[in-house]
Amino acid sequence: MNDMETLREAFDTPKPPSPAVQSAARAALLARAARHRPKRRWAMRALMVAASAVVIATGATVVQVVGGGEPTLPAANAQVVLARIATAVQKKDFAPPREDQWIYTETRMQSYGKGYVGKRLTPQTPLTSTVEEFWTRADGKRVGYKVDGKLMTSNPGDQSPENNYAMLTALPTDPDELLARFREIHQVNAADQEDWIFERFEVTLHQNIVPPAQEAAIFQAMAKLPDVKVDESAVDIEGRPALSVSRVIDGWRNFEILLDPTTYAYRGRRETAVADHEERYPQQGVEMFTLKDGTPVPSPPRVEWSIEKGTVWQLFTRTAVGVVDQAGQQP
Each residue of 64-74: pLDDT tens digit? Predict the structure, then answer.
C-alpha cells in the first residue's frame, strides 16, 4: 500500500478525491493515527509521507542525541511518581475553551521523512526537522492547517478523543473506566493493546488541551499498564532536565513521554531503538511457490528498512499550545 492508497481510506466513497480534498486528508492524517493495529505500521509510513505536504520545512538536519539513559525506577516506584503527577495536574489552573474557539498546537518533528526506506538507520543518520501548525475547533467540527503557507480548513471526518476536545471532556475520570473506554474505542489485537493504549495517551496529551480531571486519569491509567517506567533524571530533546514516562513498544522502541519535571506539562515525545530491528513487508508481485507435496510456501518478506540499537526513531517537541478565536491565529 502506498501513501495515496492510505489517504483514499479516509474518504466515504471510492470516487477519486480532488487535489484540495487530498490536501485536507493529508492534514487529517497528521491529527489521527490508524484505529486498527494490523494497519498501524502502514499508517505510520503514510503519516510521515503526508507530513511533507503540510509542514513548514526548516531546511536543517539534526544529529541524533539520546538523553536520559535507561529509566531505573522499578514499577512500584513508577506508580508512586505517576500518582504524584496525577495529584499535581488536578490542581492546575484551567480555563475551558468555548465550543466556537480553536485549540492551536505547533509541533517540531524530527524524523527521516521518506528517506529511510531501503536504508539501515544508525545513530549517525541525520534527522530532518519540520514544523507543523494545526488548529482544531473545540467542538471537533473543523480542523485548520497550512498547505504551502496558505491556511485551509476542512471537516475532519471520524475522530477519537485524542484530537477532539468535545469527546475528550466526556471521557471517564476513573482510571479503570478510562482504560476500558480506550479499549472499546481502539479495538486492536490483544497482544498489542497495551502498547497501543500507551501511545494513544501520549497523542491525547500532545494534540489537545486536557482538562485536569481527565489528565489526572490518564496518568493514573498509565500506572496500571504493565512495564511503564519513569526516569526523573531524563533530559529532553532541547537538552533540558525532564521527567520521562516510557514503555517499550513492539519489542524494539522505547516510547518516551517527556514532561516538565516541575509542572508536569507535556513537552514532547522521543522514540529510541532499544534493540536492532528490521521492518519486513510482503514482496509485492512475488508469487508463492509450492513444495513437491503441494504445500504452498509464501515468498520471504523483504526488508523495507532496519534500525540499529541506540538510534533515535522519531522526536516530537510541542513548541506552542493555546486557545484562539479563529483558525490561523496564534496564542
Answer: 444 444 445 65
Q: Which of these ranges, 4-18, 74-88, 146-160, 306-320, has the smallest mean pLDDT? A: 4-18
Say yes or no to pLDDT of 331 above 60.
Answer: yes
Per the DSSP assignment, residues forming a β-bridge with 296 are 290
**Residues 273/253, Cβ–Cβ less than 8 Å:** yes
Angle made by CA atoms 314, 47, 177, in degrees to the nearest 5: 85
Strand partners, 248: 254
Sign of torsion, CA 184 188 194 200?
negative
Res 290: pLDDT: 63
- Give the β-pairing of 277-281 and 302-307: antiparallel
Domain positions in the chain are 17-324
Is the separation of the CB atoms in 231 and 240 below 8 Å? Answer: no
- Report CA-CA distances (Å) from 54 to 83, 110, 132: 38, 15, 7
Query: pTM of the prediction?
Result: 0.76
The residue among 236, 198, 246, 229 whose CA lies nearest residue 315 is 236
